[in-house]
């Protein structure tokens, strides 16, 4: 997503860590790296409020915060802005790791952990994301007669250029990355960062209608009870 690419180039990190020394050490280390801006909190509630405005690229959250369950705080942050994320926890049970990764954490680190170790994991996640974005930027996606250039944000249906809004393009790109497969409305809504589930779904539906007007009524098919899928056959549109 272009918005993610923009934010990665700017670099913003939110830290929620109850241990003062570890919080200070992480802030110093990560703040020096690439000159990224870091905000850090001892409590989860403050971190959650700040993250809503800060829209971080990376979130590092203590699983056992002083005022909240760190797993729930991280889950809420991920729903707000979907950053790269690290859960740092003193819980050693396998079930807790599964829960942490299940809510969307990209990495799980057991305490005791040093700031250097956490920094290394964060750097590895960011480098992996940057490589993925670079690959996506340079490739041309083709689905039947449809061509999508993520870097230029251009769409063509055969020889015809199709002008899309940013939101329409983001929806189409998400569908085109999994051609023929059903993509849940909730996933599309999350990509677009809408509010409530109901409002988000309606928002997605509205833009799907607009895409169909521009690309053809059968290009994006409805998958009943799930969401939408991109279906195009060469030379003509596929059935809905």
Structural class: alpha/beta
Q: What is the N-to-C order of secondary-structure elements (H for helix, E for strand)?
A: HEHEHEHEHEHEEEEHEHHEEEE
- Main sheet makeup: 5 strands, parallel
Strand order of the largest sheet: 2-1-3-4-5
Q: Can you tell me the CATH architecture of the largest domain? A: 3-Layer(aba) Sandwich
**Global Rg:** 20 Å
Q: Which fold name fills CATH's third level, the topology of the largest domain?
A: Rossmann fold
Overall pLDDT confidence:
84
Instruction: State the CATH class of the largest domain.
Output: Alpha Beta
* DSSP, total strands: 14
Low-confidence sequence ranges:
1-9, 194-199, 235-240
- Going by CATH, what is the homologous superfamily of the largest domain? Response regulator
Label the overall shape: elongated
Cα end-to-end separation: 27 Å
Q: Provide the β-strand percentage band.
A: 15-25%
Fraction of helical residues: 40-55%
Brief sketch in words of this structure:
By secondary structure, the chain is an alpha/beta fold. The protein has helices at residues 2-10, 20-32, 44-54, 70-81, 94-102, 115-138, 166-176, 185-192, 197-215; strands at residues 12-16, 37-41, 58-62, 84-89, 107-110, 141-143, 146-149, 154-157, 160-162, 183-184, 220-223, 227-230, 232-233, 236-237.
């Amino acid at each position: 997503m272009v918005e993610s690419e923009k934010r990665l180039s700017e670099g913003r990190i939110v830290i929620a860590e109850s241990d003062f020394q570890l919080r200070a050490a992480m802030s110093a280390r990560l703040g020096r790296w690439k000159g990224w801006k870091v905000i850090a909190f001892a409590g989860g509630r403050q971190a959650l409020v700040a993250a809503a405005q800060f829209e971080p690229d990376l979130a590092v959250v203590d699983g056992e915060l002083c005022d909240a369950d760190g797993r729930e705080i991280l889950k809420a942050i991920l729903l707000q802005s979907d950053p790269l994320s690290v859960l740092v926890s003193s819980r050693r049970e396998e079930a807790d790791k599964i829960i942490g990764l299940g809510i969307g954490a990209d990495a799980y680190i057991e305490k005791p952990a040093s700031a250097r170790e956490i920094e290394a994991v964060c750097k590895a996640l960011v480098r992996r994301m940057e490589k993925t974005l670079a690959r996506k930027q340079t490739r041309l996606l083709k689905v039947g007669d449809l061509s999508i250039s993520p870097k230029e944000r251009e769409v063509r249906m055969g020889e015809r250029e199709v002008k899309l809004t940013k939101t329409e393009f983001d929806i189409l790109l998400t569908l085109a990355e999994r051609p023929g497969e059903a993509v849940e409305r909730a996933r599309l809504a999350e990509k677009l960062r809408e509010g409530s589930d109901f409002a988000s779904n309606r928002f997605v539906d509205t833009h799907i209608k607009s895409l169909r007007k521009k690309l053809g009524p059968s290009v994006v098919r409805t998958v009943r009870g799930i969401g939408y899928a991109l279906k195009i056959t060469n030379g003509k549109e596929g059935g809905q």
